[in-house]
Amino acid sequence: MDPGFEPVRDAFAKNFEKHGEVGAACCVYRDGRAVVDIWGGSADARGERPWQHDTLQLVFSATKGVTAICAHKLVEAGRLDLDAPVAQYWPEFAANGKAAITVRQVLSHRAGLAMIEGELSLEQVLAWDPVVAAIAAQSTNWEPGSTHGYHVRSYGWIVGELVRRITGMSLSRFLETEIAAPLGLDFYIGLPAAELDRCAETIPPEGGLDALVEILGADSLTARAMRGPSDLFAYDDMWNRRELLAASMPSSNGVGTAHALARLYAATVAVVDGVRILAPETVDAARAVHSEGPDKIILVPSRYGLGFTLPPMLAQGCGNGAFGHPGAGGSLGFADPEARLGFGYVMNRMQLGPKADPRAHALVKATVRCLAVA
Q1: Which pLDDT score is estimated for 374?
Q2: What is the pLDDT of residues 350-364, one digit of tens each?
C-alpha cells in the first residue's frame, strides 16, 4: 500500500467490526498502478479458509460492467455499430416486432426486454443457446425506447450473443483472449473447473428476494425479471453450485478478484503495464447519460450510460464522471477518468438494501479522501 492510503485500510478493517464483513478484498489503481491492494477475513462462512490475495469471488451484476467493456472494445474496432439494429448481427432477433431495437437501446436498458418469456429449465438457461433463442423469439415488455428498466439478466445474453455473432467467440472466450490475457486479469465469466477451489463461498442475505416478491406479487414485471427466466433464480445457495459458476451468464456470474476489477477499470482510463483497453473518446461515449429517472424494473430512479451505471448509483463519493457497475450484495467496480482511478471491491457476505452498500461506500469515501491530499 502506498503511503497516504492508510485510511482505506482502516475503513476496510472497520467493515469487519461494524458491518459484519466475513471475507473481502479491495484494490485501488491510480495512474495505472496499484496504490491499495488489501484482503482479509474468511473465504467461507465457517471461518476455515483464510481469504488470500488470489481468492476469487462471484460478483453478480458487477459482471455487467465487464461485459460492457467487451462490447465497447468491438465498437472501438468498428465491428459493432451502436445505432445498428441488433437484428443486423442476429437476424432471428427481429421476430415479434423487435427488428428496430438498436444496440444502443440494449446497452442503456431501453430495449423493453427486461423479462424473458417462455418456459425454460435451469439446464437450458445455463446452456446458452435455448435462452438466447427464447429472447430472440419473444415480444417486448414495453415499447422500446419509450422508457428504461434494468435488464437484470437479459442484458448479458443479448450483448453476449452480439459478441458471438460478430467474432465467432463466446463472450467468455473474447474476454479471456482480448482483455484478460493482455492485462493478466484473474477474472472469468464461466469459471474453469481448475479454479473452483480458489472461489470463496457466497453467503446469501437473509430473505433474499422474498420480501420484494411478497410486496409486489410474484406476477409483477419486477419480480419476474428479478427471478427469471422461468422463476429459476433467487439470492440463495444456488450461486455456490458448480454448474452456475461454470456457465456463461454475462449479466450475473463473473468471478474474479478485487485486484482484477480495479486493474481492468484502470486500463480503461490509463495505461497499465503498457496496455490500455479503451480510448478516451470511447470511454466518454460510454459514460454519457442515456437513461435517467424512474426505472420500470427496480422502481427507484436509476442512471445508465452504455452498459454502465453512473453516479449516484455506484457509491457515494464517486466523481460525477465515474462509470462502472455494482453487484447484488455489495461488490463494486468502477473507473473515474478525472481521478485516473480504477476501483474494485469484492466480498462474500451479501447484504441487500435500498441504498448503496455501506461497506463499499466507506471504502470509496476513504479513497476519495486520500486522493484529495495525495
Answers
A1: 64
A2: 998 666 789 999 999
Strands 33-41 and 187-189: unpaired
Which class for 17: exposed (0-12), middle (13-18), buried (19 or more C-beta within 10 A)?
Answer: exposed
Which cell numbers in the block locate residue 271?
495505461
Whether 1 is in a domain gets the answer no
The structural domain count of the chain equals 1
DSSP one-letter code for 180? I
Residue segments in the chain with a per-residue pLDDT below the cut of 50: none
So what's the pLDDT on residue 217?
59
Containing domain of residue 174, as a range? 6-373
Please state, in angstroms and as integers, the Cα–Cα distance from residue 7 to each residue in 17, 35, 36, 70, 329, following that order: 15, 12, 10, 33, 23
Predicted local distance difference test score (pLDDT) of residue 354:
60
Q: At 253, which CATH number?
A: 3.40.710.10
Q: Which residue has the cell 481468492?
A: 55
Cell of 328: 447484488
Supply the residues annotated as catalytic. 61
- 18: its cell numbers: 461494524
Q: Is the peptide bond before 280 cis (omega within 30 degrees of 0)?
A: no
Three-class DSSP category at 351: coil
- Is 306 strand, coil or helix? coil
Task: Name the DSSP letter for residue 320.
Answer: T
For 205, which DSSP code? Answer: P
Task: Give a yes or no: residue 354 inside a domain.
Answer: yes
In a domain, 164, yes or no: yes
Helices 62-76 + 154-167 axis angle, to 10: 30
* Residue 182 in domain: yes
